[in-house]
Each structure stands twice: as C-alpha cells, then as structure tokens.
Design goal:
13 helices, 456 residues
Length: 456
C-alpha cells in the first residue's frame, strides 16, 4: 500500500471539485484531486472520445477550459482512484486504483467532499426490463457516443432534466413517442409564478428546450406517469396513466424514467458530520454553513453532495468551500472577500428551492407488492412491507431481514425506497432515514483483496 500527503484532498472531479481545486492551488496549497472515473469532468463536464470531438465539436468547452486550468495549476490529479474509506475527520483517506486494485492512503490537513449525486429511480412493474433506463444514461449515449437509446423513446418522471435529455435524443434521430411529466411545472400555480419570473436565465433555458420540442411535434404531457412497462427480452410497450383516470398504452423500444437526483453523501456521513432532512423529507444531507463547513473539523462539502442545486450552484459552492479552506490553512494567502459569491449562491439556492416546489417527488405508497425494489438481491416491495409489519420496523432490521440494500450498489439505488416502504422517511412529515455509511463506502475491486495487500 502506498501513501502520500497533501494540504487538501478534493474528492470528486466534477464542477464543484474542479472549481475548488483551482482556487486552492492558486492560493498556494498542495492539492490532490481524486475521481473514480478515468477522466475529469464529472457527469456534466464529461469528455467525448477524440474522434467524436473532431467530428461534432467539444461537448462542453467550458469544462475543457476548466480542466486545463486545473492541470496547469499543478493540482495532483488522480483519476481512476476510488475513495472507499476515511478516518480522523477525513485527514486520512483510503483509496484503491480501480484498474489494478492497488490500495493507497492519503494524509491531508483538510478534505473537501464534492462527490456529486446519482439519479433517483422509483420502481414500477416492468422497470427491470432491458430497454428501461434512466434519462442520464440516455443522455450519455446521445451526447458522448452520438447513439440514440432507441428508435422510439418514451421519457417520463419529473424534473427539468427531462427537457435537455429529450432534445439530445431528437438531435441523434430518436423519435419521442411521449414526454410524460408527473407534475405541472409548465403551468405553475400563482404562488410559484413569481419565483419563476425572478430566474430569467433559467426561464429562457427552459423556453429554448420547449421550443425545440414543439418544432419536432413533442408535447409535454403534464400530470401523467408511467404505470407499467411490458415486454419479454426487451421493453415493447408502456402504460401511461393520467390524473383523470385515463390509461393509454404506447409501443416503444426504450423507456427512460427518472425523478431527479439524490446527493451522494456517504463520505461525510461516514465521518460523522451532522445531518438533517432535505425539504422533501426523503434524504439526509450534511449540515453545512454558507461556505460548506461541516460539524467535523477540517471536513467540507460542496456541490450536489450538499443538496441538489445544479451545475452553476455546484461551481459556486466549490469556490466558497475552497476560500473557507484557504482562510483556515493559509490566511495570509486568502483572496479577497467572497460576498459576491455568497450572493450568487443564495440566488442559485432560491432557484433550487423553486425547482423543489415545481417538481415534488411522488409518494411511494402505491408501489405494488410484487414489484422488485432491490434489484441486487431480488427483494420485492411486499417483502419489505411484510418485514416492517412483523416487527422489523427499524430500517436496519428490515435490511437484515430481507437483504434489501446488501448488494453491490449498497443501497444507493433502493435505500430511499426501502426506508419509505418500511415507514422510515416517506415524506416531508416524517424524519428521513437512510442506511448507515460504513467502510468500504464503495465496492472494492477484487484485485484489492489479493494476497500481499494490507487493508488499513
């Protein structure tokens, strides 16, 4: 096992981590930037293959420039590096090379968790069929590989993310059979209208997407949801339910369903930082101040890990956290006051709060008993409910009784659903609960367990 040292370790090479690493390096601190992926950029600034970039242009030129600046600032970049554990308030990080399994240890004076988020899925009958994917997967294929996820696509769920995904699919030649939005964000109530008008840039962005869809004859069906998907070796049809009780069946060869994003909070929770329920009552978020400082001395959180707010907010939060670290570790080199950044962060946070109101999460109470919830272990909604009703009313007891959440994803996919079905965090009036974060917080490659490797 190899070891190294740095003033600051930044975990996550997406927008928040990149902005933070740049500010820290420019402030004279030694910085190591760790990311599990092979390349920097995260999901938003991910890089196209060179041949597609030559043919179609740079997908995110701002990300390319930011990555170039980070490398030129002499940040030590370690891609393909998994952070699977930590101790001593994050001053010691345990790593593994995702290719070779080689274990490592990094000692730091401060750690910034910029671990981002993953897509939120909600189970329904047929959601495990081949051809049923998340919108993020469809967007990756369309933008990175210029390949449509299917010829005839149904997009469903809730959230503003569905709009750019639909436009990207149209650009690569897919036909959108339906764009099904659970809520009514494009006919907002009067209480939300004022907040919408105070975000002109976001309003203009949404308008551009909606105009693109209209030119292709795609209408957003609001107040509707996917009830079930059908098929044998591939999804072939989907039932769409409307608020008035109507149900219509559409033929399709790809179904993309997503309900926004969930913060990836395992690292700060492992280190014991204080948490609180998010506004939906479904997630436990690290408690942070305006600069991303947590209750754990020397641990900072930035980006979507601190709450879903979008790429612009992630970048600002990363910069604010970096400034706070500089004021702590190198006050003589700390840059000018950050009042302007804080004002921008507050504005972006207001937009995130508006999005929460426009795109509320659906209840999970109507998931049929025979629907598989934990795909890793093959546990159904009925099995989880039965375990909770027969005395396993503690979330971890339900997990032990059913094995739900014990598979390779470690509950990242199903944990929030298991908690809701067990009656532990199903809405804003109930305290959110989640599986405890334990080492390894991500599955280790088999090579990490070979003889001769010493796991600390």
């Amino acid at each position: 096992m190899t070891g190294s040292e740095a003033d600051v370790a930044v975990v996550g090479g997406g927008p928040a981590g990149l902005h933070a690493a740049l500010v820290l390096a420019q402030g004279g601190l030694s910085v190591v930037l760790l990311d599990e992926s092979d390349t920097l950029g995260g999901q938003y600034y991910k890089r196209r293959p060179a041949q597609l970039t030559a043919a179609f242009g740079d997908f995110r030129p701002r990300g390319t420039e930011l990555i170039r600046q980070v490398r030129e600032a002499e940040v030590v970049v370690r891609t393909g590096t998994l952070v699977w554990g930590a101790e001593d308030a994050g001053r010691t990080l345990f790593t593994s090379d995702v290719r070779t399994g080689a274990l490592g240890r990094i000692n730091t004076r401060a750690t910034l968790a910029a671990t981002g988020a993953y897509e939120r899925s909600l189970p329904f009958p047929g959601w495990t069929l081949p051809g049923v994917v998340t919108p993020g997967f469809a967007l990756h294929l369309a933008t990175m590989d210029r390949v449509p996820v299917g010829n005839r696509v149904v997009l469903a769920g809730t959230g503003p993310f569905l709009l750019p995904v639909a436009c990207a699919l149209l650009e690569v030649g897919a036909r959108i059979e339906a764009l099904v939005e659970l809520n009514h964000p494009y006919r907002p109530r009067a209480s939300a209208l004022g907040g919408t008008l105070r975000q002109p840039a976001r309003l203009a962005e949404a308008a551009r997407y909606l105009l693109t869809l209209a030119r292709h004859g795609v209408r957003v069906e609001q107040g509707a949801r996917v009830l079930a998907a059908y098929g044998d070796t591939q999804v072939t049809a989907v039932d769409i339910g409307h608020e008035d009780g109507r149900v219509r069946r559409l033929e399709t060869d790809a179904l993309c369903v997503g309900f926004g994003f969930r913060p990836s909070t395992e690292l700060p929770r492992l280190l014991g930082c204080d948490t609180q329920a998010d506004p939906t009552g479904t997630e436990q978020l690290p408690v942070v101040d305006a600069d991303g400082t947590t209750s754990v001395d020397g641990l900072y959180v930035a980006g979507d890990c601190a709450g879903i707010a979008g790429v612009q907010a992630a970048g600002v939060r990363g910069q604010l956290a970096a400034h706070a670290i500089l004021r702590r570790l190198a006050p003589e080199r700390a840059p000018a006051p950050v009042a302007g950044l804080r004002r921008r962060a507050r504005s972006l946070d207001r937009f995130a709060a508006l999005a929460d109101r426009l795109y509320p999460m659906p209840a999970t109470a109507d998931i049929p008993d025979d629907t598989q919830v934990c795909r890793c272990e093959g546990v159904s909604a009925g099995e989880i409910r039965q375990a909770a009703e027969t005395g396993w009313n503690d979330l971890h007891g339900t997990k032990a009784a059913t094995r739900a959440g014990m598979g390779p994803c470690q509950g990242r996919e199903c944990g929030h659903i298991v908690a809701a079905l067990a009656g532990r965090g199903s809405g804003p009036n109930r305290a959110a609960e989640c599986f405890a974060a334990r080492m390894p917080i991500r599955p280790l490659p088999m090579a990490a367990t070979v003889e001769g490797q010493e796991v600390p």
